[in-house]
């Protein structure tokens, strides 16, 4: 029986909770702007700023911080006080220091699969932040490597497969984003498992065909992954 040579996991909102930290920080900034400056509409304005800055900053908490401050300055017409900017920076530092909370079923699933397969973490975001989260996660020893990409598109996945000397057909990617974890891998001829998260960043939401038409697998829970992999490998 042929096995997957590599099973790769996305990190944020696949292995551990992440998006809810952003949502909570954004709520705090929204309240600050409303109470002290009578300003609202942060969410839409911030998203536009983030999209415009993506080519400059890439992904992650520090990019979020700079875009949030820029948006707050603009929405308040430059009236935001230094102390309030300092408060926002403090909230961002809390995000970076937050405990890593694994999603339900991750610890057992990763431990189990690591006995039969080579596992990778494939993520984007800040290098230091992702390394720190993996180190604190308690599951780092199950992974052969961590790959931190500036974006997760077809070209970068192709380069990753070449670096590891793996044929796309024997590569499986697991993640919560159709845009970043599933569609580019399927386009290269690899296999992908989509496990939707409770909250997903607007940028990762795409209109995509369902699992059957889209050629990927979908699960409601991480703990179902080992059985699905056994099934797929029977057909490989
Ligand atoms: Mg993710």
Q: Give the assembly state of these chains.
A: single chain
What proportion strand?
Answer: 5-15%
Radius of gyration: 19 Å
- Give the spatial strand order of the biggest sheet: 3-2-1-4-5-6
Query: Which shape, going by the Cα principal axes?
Result: elongated
How many E strands? 6
Cofactors, ions and other ligands in the entry: magnesium ion
Order of helices and strands: EHHHHHEHEHEHEHEH
Largest sheet: 6 strands, parallel
Indicate the structural class: alpha/beta
How many angstroms does the end-to-end distance come to? 7 Å
Mean pLDDT: 95
Point out poorly predicted stretches: none
Helix content class: 40-55%
Count, helices: 10
Any chance you could write out the topology, listing elements then pairs?
Elements: E1 6-9, H1 19-37, H2 42-57, H3 61-75, H4 82-97, H5 106-114, E2 118-124, H6 127-137, E3 145-149, H7 154-164, E4 171-175, H8 178-187, E5 191-194, H9 211-214, E6 217-218, H10 225-235
Parallel strand pairs: 1-2, 1-4, 2-3, 4-5, 5-6
The chain binds magnesium ion.
Magnesium ion is lined by residues 10, 12-14, 175-177.
């Amino acid at each position: 029986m042929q096995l997957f040579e590599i099973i790769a996991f996305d990190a944020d909102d696949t292995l551990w909770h992440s998006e809810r930290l952003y949502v909570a920080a954004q709520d705090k900034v929204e309240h600050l702007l409303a109470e002290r400056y009578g300003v609202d509409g942060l969410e839409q304005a911030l998203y536009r700023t983030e999209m415009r800055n993506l080519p400059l900053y890439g992904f992650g908490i520090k990019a979020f911080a700079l875009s949030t401050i820029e948006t707050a300055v603009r929405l308040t017409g430059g009236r935001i006080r230094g102390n309030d900017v300092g408060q926002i920076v403090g909230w961002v530092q809390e995000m970076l220091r937050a405990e890593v909370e694994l999603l339900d079923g991750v610890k057992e699933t990763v431990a189990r699969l690591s006995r039969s397969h080579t596992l990778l973490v494939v993520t984007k975001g800040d290098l230091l932040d992702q390394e720190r989260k993996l180190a604190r996660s308690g599951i780092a020893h199950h992974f052969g490597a961590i790959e931190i990409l500036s974006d997760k598109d077809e070209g970068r996945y192709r380069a990753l497969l070449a670096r590891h000397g793996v044929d796309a057909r024997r590569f499986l990617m697991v993640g919560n984003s159709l845009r970043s974890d599933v569609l580019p891998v399927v386009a290269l001829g690899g296999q992908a498992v989509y496990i939707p998260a409770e909250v997903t960043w607007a940028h990762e939401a795409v209109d995509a065909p369902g699992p059957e038409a889209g050629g990927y697998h979908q699960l409601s829970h991480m703990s179902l992954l080992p059985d699905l992999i056994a099934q797929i490998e029977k057909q490989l």
